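Need the bound structure for flavin-adenine dinucleotide, inputs here:
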Amino acid sequence: MTQKKNAPLGVEGGYDYIICGGGMAGLSLAYYLKTSTLAHHSILIIEPQEKDKNDRTWAFWGNTENAFEHILYKKWSSVCFVDADGKSQVLDIENYQYKLLRGIDFYNFVIGELKGLGNIEWLKDSVSSIDDSDDLATITTTNGTQFQAKYVFDSTYKLKLDNRNNHNLLQHFKGLVIKSVEPIFNPSLPDMMNFGVVQYNDCRFIYVLPFDEHTAIVEYTLFSEKLLQEKEYDIELKKYISEKLQLSNYQILEEEFGVIPMSDEPTNEFPSKHVVRIGTAGGYTNPATGYTFQNTQKRLKGIVESLEKTGSPIIKDAWFKKRFLFYASVLLNVLEQKRQPAAEVFTRLYERNHPSQIFKFLDGETNFWEEIKIMYSTKKPIFIAAVFDVIKRKFTKL
Ligand SMILES: Cc1cc2nc3c(=O)[nH]c(=O)nc-3n(C[C@H](O)[C@H](O)[C@H](O)COP(=O)(O)OP(=O)(O)OC[C@H]3O[C@@H](n4cnc5c(N)ncnc54)[C@H](O)[C@@H]3O)c2cc1C
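Answer from helper R.:
Posting the output first, comments after.
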């Protein structure tokens, strides 16, 4: 373990790294540090919550195993897509799998791995400010204590998503884990996107992620600018369960509600010399899908590798990678401006391309030729209009 740095008067202690927020990104980072050559470095994790509840469930696709593969709750080798007319197709996702990780399993596993290590300290408090100076960063907690570190990793920063030149949609959803008396779910086939619900001129769909024949998470999801009233999610969920699943006899085991930014507003992952924003705060959410989990894992692994190799966490993307942000802006523009019904946009994408190519594209891993083919499968006049609108908005001050 490295010696704690000498802290100036009035400052509690110095660390190699301070992690603000012990949620998904903060804990993932601590885990990657623990499993790296930097395992002996001193770390302070500041988190106000206990992390003893299943407060969220992460679903994501992947074509390689990740660090948390052994604690996945479920994984599926195929998924179902249902269009607005109720026509369902099983997508051939080739070497990808659709995976599900429960928050509580993640918290228990990672905290269990880290607790008791001599170089990791935990503080149940909230960060109120982070200040950077020439050679270190200082954080102040709400009860006035200060700590310093060479690098502060901040997952608590609240993104400001209010610039009208950009597209600021929200992915918002309510999910119920239900248990039916009858065996009605197919445990090997989740509905990844089911547009067979009234669209109300929005983008609305259902996820059904089955755990077994009796139990599934059923989630009502929207991509739109404004949240609904709480009862509206409930009405639509109940309607889907009674009309489409034809279930009257079931038990609600758990509920989740979430809002994820789907925004092309530029984020600042490295706001100053010794501060790195991570997770949602660092802009790790895919603006076109709201998926954040897998991207966070990739990015944090990259940051830890960079720390190992160079001593600095700063990694820069090649400029040509930025094109994926532009593609996301175009898709967001089509959805925000309601240029084409969202159900049609996604149906066309999944029907006219190999689904695995769409996953690869959304992960920012396709080459330019593959991207041209995907662009060609969209309704061109609509997407071209969106391209011009994005360019106009990005270069004009509204
Ligand atoms: C209900 C829900 C379901 C989701 N499902 C998916 C999904 O299926 N797939 C996917 O890819 N993404 C999903 N996401 C999006 C994303 O993966 C999660 O939000 C993820 O938890 C983001 O990780 P994070 O570390 O950035 O934030 P969090 O996990 O929220 O962690 C931030 C932590 O900071 C703490 N904190 C806040 N303020 C302070 C402060 N001032 N000082 C100290 N600590 C503080 C919080 O208590 C929290 O523990 C979901 C989000 C939600 C809300």
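Comments: The pocket of flavin-adenine dinucleotide is lined by residues 20-26, 46-49, 56, 58-60, 126-127, 155-156, 256, 258, 260, 279-281, 291-293 (CB under 6 Å). Residues 13-55+101-159+267-310 form a domain with the FAD/NAD(P)-binding domain fold (CATH 3.50.50.60).
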